[in-house]
Specification:
Layout: H1 3-23, H2 30-34, H3 44-68, E1 75-78, H4 93-96, H5 99-111, H6 114-122, H7 142-160, E2 171-175, E3 179-182, H8 183-205
Parallel strand pairs: 1-2
Antiparallel strand pairs: 2-3
């Protein structure tokens, strides 16, 4: 498989996941987008904003890698815990940062197949903390939400267009908890993240208090 074919296949996965996610928003009123199942739960609008914010963060990582490297030598980037403090929900961040606690997770991420990592991310039963950089805003108008998601995806696809022939496995970022990911794997993470939150949207819509009209 050529580099261009590999990227095209990955982008197909990316786009299929986004289409499914957007399908869950179709026809929803502003009242429905803003409905919260509980005080500490996200509305569908907040879920959508979070999805777009997350793609924006990964877009920044990929942009920095591509600007720093070349097709021949690639590039690497370290993502600090402070920059993306992501981890299991049941472990406090202060504890998770301790080397004896963090090290086993880091080793596990290094050896875990990326397909398994993506599957875990898509699984709503695996609870993770939300990093401040991707904490959503409540009450965004429907039009603004959809435009934000469309702009985030347009930026991702525009970034990839000039590098279709590059070997994107040479461009990698590393995180203490999530391990290392090349650009193909990063795109698969974004797709899995969409899948995770598409399921969350459907659970909100099934809530007994979900409004059935504007």
């Amino acid at each position: 498989m050529t580099n261009a074919e590999k990227l095209a296949k990955t982008v197909e996965i990316l786009e299929r996941a986004r289409t499914a996610f957007l399908g869950g928003l179709e026809g929803l009123t502003q009242l429905q987008l803003d409905f919260k199942p509980a005080a500490d739960s996200w509305s569908i609008g907040e879920i959508a904003h979070h999805v777009g914010l997350t793609e924006t963060v990964f877009h920044r990582y990929m942009t920095e890698l591509l600007r720093a490297g070349s097709p021949e030598r690639g590039a690497t980037r370290r993502v600090s815990f402070d920059e993306l403090p992501m981890g299991p929900q049941m472990i406090p961040q202060s504890v998770l940062r301790l080397a004896p606690v963090l090290m086993p997770f880091s080793i596990m991420s290094s050896f875990m197949p990326k397909s398994v990592q993506s599957a875990l991310l898509a699984n709503p039963l695996v609870k993770v903390k939300t990093a401040p950089a991707v904490e959503p805003k409540a009450g965004m108008p429907r039009k603004d939400l959809l435009n934000f998601l469309a702009e985030a995806r347009k930026n991702t696809l525009q970034l990839l267009e000039p590098v279709r022939e590059w070997d994107l496995t040479l461009f990698r970022w590393f995180h203490p908890m999530m391990g290392g990911h090349n650009i193909y794997e990063t795109l698969e993470l974004v797709a899995s993240h969409d899948q995770r939150h598409a399921g969350q949207v459907e659970r909100v819509k099934k809530h007994a208090g979900f409004p059935d009209h504007a």
